[in-house]
Design a protein that fits this description.
Elements: E1 4-13, E2 16-26, E3 31-35, H1 42-49, E4 56-64, E5 67-68, H2 74-80, E6 85-88, H3 92-95, H4 102-114, H5 118-131, H6 137-140, H7 150-163, E7 168-172, H8 180-197, E8 200-205, H9 208-214, E9 217-222, E10 225-231, H10 232-237, H11 242-248, E11 264-278, E12 288-302, E13 306-310, H12 317-324, E14 331-336, H13 345-354, E15 355-358, H14 362-365, H15 372-383, H16 389-402, H17 423-435, E16 441-445, H18 453-470, E17 473-477, H19 481-487, E18 490-495, E19 498-504, H20 505-510, H21 515-524
Parallel strand pairs: 3-8, 3-9, 6-7, 7-8, 13-17, 13-18, 15-16, 16-17
Antiparallel strand pairs: 1-2, 1-4, 4-5, 9-10, 11-12, 11-14, 18-19
């Protein structure tokens, strides 16, 4: 008997069906991957199995060791959730309770599912954190989720999922927001846990390289339908369905200007940034400590070129971006067009028009209360208040057209709100908002990490085309070396706030000299 047998699974919200007759099986200790773009029905299918999709009308059968999960009484289902079937959610920061330390949250699972005493559950919780490779587990168990890094929170969530000793683990995009090295560590942890505890894993992801390395079988979903499934080696090497072929071929392609530019737009020399931190013990009553986030780094940003900034979380990438945008105090030398940030609005305003930023998550960076017209026009209101309404609207429409959004395709475009657009379309809106003031430098903070592979390629093609046409300079902050390889002219590798390698992109990525860079490259492009 299969561990889990799903037959004719259908899921609908408000009368609209989003999953159409899905069928698959999971055998004991098997690793199955569900792949597809956002909106394909991957996550909602997994949530529906445990009846966690709020407002969903679910039909079909989901036989768990002979029992139908979809018709199981609630008391029995509560015993299955977390005890027999556990789930790792996509974003641990929202899945973990912010009011309880992570040790308490893991201990709660052990008390409820295994009947342990409070003291025994706490000791076991610390041991589970140690097993996931979390350093100083006894101390970290006392931390709240916001006090841990992204990788540490993900390890805590994996420890919580494994603590109930489940037979099936549902892992929903467990590494999407993590750096490449952390991603590899988390997948290795899942692989070791699967082998050690003999559990089956259903991996939900759009990361095909991860599927190749981890899964045995793959199921491809498009718009709620299963379009292809089978052994990973066969499906991904010889895809039969056009949609699978599109996913497999959705790799970032390098298409940038090769000729160099001598015009230096921004220059940093011995740039240093310190953050105040509270000292532990009685010394913290009288003085604050200092944490050095950037330690004497040098770089240049040239017209028409892309500077790729890579490194793990905590390496200083975001601090570099904030300093370049004049949003953090720094020491050393930093100038843009020969001028330094002075902290005076009237003086800095001209610089702010010439350097703009595109944030990582367009859904949170675009105000849900403002229309598209108001969002894109906001920069003009600040930097060109003298423009008339007609000229202003014309510039807004031109900026939207440059990113591929038109009134023809989206009637009433200027009156729409961000939630009416897909993730890729929202990122186009964010780019249009930056372009409308005609900047010369764009700081791109993980511009594609929240997007599916095919949408990622579309955004990269758009950025490449805009750079060639407008001569824009990009500062690309990312942990995805495939994006750096496609976009960057030069690469800056940061670690613990210091530059450990810097040079032309082809040289750094193809012939890395520092062991840390070599580890990043090998994790991103495994042989």
């Amino acid at each position: 008997m299969s561990l889990l047998s799903v037959e004719r699974l259908r899921v609908a919200f408000a009368g609209r069906e989003v999953v159409h007759g899905l069928e698959f099986r999971i055998e004991p200790e098997e690793k199955l991957a569900l792949v597809g773009e956002s909106g394909s029905g991957k996550s909602v299918s997994a949530l529906s199995l445990l009846r966690l999709a709020q407002g969903a009308v679910v039909s079909g059968r989901a036989l768990w060791q002979g029992e139908d999960l979809l018709r199981m009484d609630l008391q029995r289902l509560r015993g299955v959730r977390g005890g027999e079937i556990a789930m790792i959610f996509q974003e641990p920061m929202t899945a973990l309770n912010p009011l309880f330390c992570v040790g308490d949250q893991i201990a709660e699972v052990l008390e409820l599912k295994l009947g342990m005493s409070r003291q025994q559950a706490w000791r076991e919780a610390v041991q589970w954190l140690e097993r996931t490779g979390l350093p100083d587990a006894a101390i970290k168990a006392l931390h709240f989720p916001h006090q841990l890094s992204g990788g540490q929170r993900q390890r805590a969530m994996i420890a919580m999922a494994l603590a109930g000793r489940p037979k099936l683990l549902l892992a929903d995009e467990p590494t999407t927001a993590l750096d490449v090295s952390l991603r590899g560590q988390i997948m290795e942890l899942l692989r070791e846990s699967q082998a050690r505890y003999g559990l089956a894993v259903m991996l939900i992801t759009h990361d095909l390289p991860m599927v190749r390395q981890f899964a045995q079988r793959v199921l491809v979903m498009e718009k709620g339908h299963c379009v292809e499934q089978g052994e990973v080696s066969r499906v991904l090497s010889h895809p039969g369905h056009p949609y699978t072929q599109k996913l497999v071929n959705s790799l970032p392609v390098r298409d940038v200007r090769t000729e160099g530019e001598d015009d230096v737009l921004a220059r940093a020399h011995q740039l240093t940034v310190d953050y105040p931190v509270k000292q532990s013990g009685w010394r913290g009553w009288f003085r604050t400590g200092r944490f050095r986030a950037l330690d004497g780094i040098d770089f240049e940003v040239r017209r028409g070129q892309t500077l790729g900034v890579v490194g793990e979380s905590g390496s200083g990438k975001s601090t570099l971006a904030l300093s370049l945008l004049g949003l953090l105090s720094s020491s050393g030398h930093l100038s843009l067009w020969g001028q330094a940030w002075c902290g005076k609005l009237a003086v800095d305003l001209t610089l702010r028009r010439r350097i703009q930023v595109v944030f990582q998550d367009p859904f949170s960076s675009l105000s849900p209360r403002m229309t598209v017209g108001e969002i894109v026009q906001e920069g003009l209101n600040v930097h060109h208040p003298d423009l008339g309404p007609e000229v202003r609207q014309s510039r807004v429409l031109t900026a939207l057209q440059e990113v591929g959004l038109t009134e023809t395709e989206f009637p009433g475009l200027l009156q729409r709100y961000p939630h009416e657009f897909s993730g890729g379309q929202r990122q186009r809106l964010a780019i249009a908002r930056a372009l409308v003031v005609e900047p010369e430098v764009l700081v791109l903070d993980e511009p594609t990490s929240a997007l599916d592979v095919s949408i990622q390629c579309q955004i990269l093609e758009l950025l490449q085309e805009l750079q060639k046409r407008k001569g824009l300079a990009y500062v690309l902050i990312t942990h995805d070396l495939a994006v750096v390889r496609a976009m960057a002219h030069r690469v800056l590798v940061l670690r613990h706030g210091r530059v450990i390698e810097h040079g032309p992109a082809t040289q750094v990525l193809e012939h890395p000299e520092d062991p840390y860079t070599q580890a990043l490259v090998s994790a991103s492009f495994p042989a």
